[in-house]
Amino acid sequence: MKELINKLEATGMLGKDEFTLLLSNFTPELSEYLFQKARNVSIKYFGNRIYTRGLIEFTNYCRNNCYYCGIRAGNSKAERYRLSLEEILECCESGYELGFRTFVLQGGEDNYYTDVDIVEIISNIKNLYPDCALTLSIGEKSEESYRAYFNAGADRYLLRHETANQEHYSKLHPKSLSLKTRMECLWTLKKIGYQVGAGFMVGSPFQSFENIAEDLLFLKELSPEMIGIGPFLPHHDTPFGDRSKGSYELTLFIIGLLRLMIPNAMLPATTALGTINPKGREAGILAGANVVMPNLSPIRVRKKYELYDDKICTGEEAAECRFCLQNRMKSIGYELVVDRGDFKPII
Ligand code: SAH
Fold first, then answer.
1. pTM over 0.90
2. pLDDT in tens, 306-340
3. 29 C-alpha to ligand 1 centroid (Å)
């Protein structure tokens, strides 16, 4: 199996069968072999610098019914909330003081906010903080909407593809959602000029190693600037409430593979990774990740943006999260930097 990792390191790519073979044979020893290489690549491109993004979860209303997600429309137990423009700006203000130079606005697909509202939020943030990058993660929209947000100043867009396999996609989502639309959105975002983020959950119900291989092939083709992956974690009030968690070790292994595939990609050590293991985010960095995304949402809403059970950091102030992560990174020899953290093409 080490030969396959060497080949991936040398060429940046493997075939579907090779990825499937590698994934189904991963061991702690092979992981360590991979992580060493992946870490070296991160160090080559980013040094020991870790980029931060301030995450603002501004609405947990959602019109969709994804079977895995705790804020799905069908979860009548979810306590819903929305942040006003003023509240969002307050999050940015405290975030800016804490050294964040990227804000990520994430939410359910909430049609309460019209395009005019979203544009107003974007323009306000960009006017007040022209030196900051703004990332949106608000789901599937029309090309026209994506263009309006981009023209208003949004720089980046996160839209995980969730799975690149059609059949698998239909087992995770209701009929109203299709992989075709999701992928079209991603290509449209690229065409418009956004820095794009895709990704998937590791260990989502019905996922096979072959499916993950398909995800990797799709990611290589799309070549997004950012790739977010994390383990699937069940939420008790969803149809997948009694499913088992994704594998922590496999998630780390895939982070390592992604680092060798797309050396300069922005790869976050996600909150889900920190939830499945108390040292998950540190381990993610040591497996090749280079980004962390602490939460800037007001404490009163934190617990309500519950995509899965036992989500971490729901009780801490933004400042606490920031310094906690700074210490965690320091403990493994890395430093958080005050920087927009833009994707840099390899020249
Ligand atoms: N509505 C936006 C944001 C979705 S939330 C959108 O459609 O893009 C961000 C990500 O959280 C999702 O893309 C999904 O991959 C992840 N997520 C949702 N439920 C999860 C769960 N139960 N376990 C782990 N990750 C989950």
1. yes
2. 999 999 999 888 889 999 999 999 999 999 999 99
3. 31
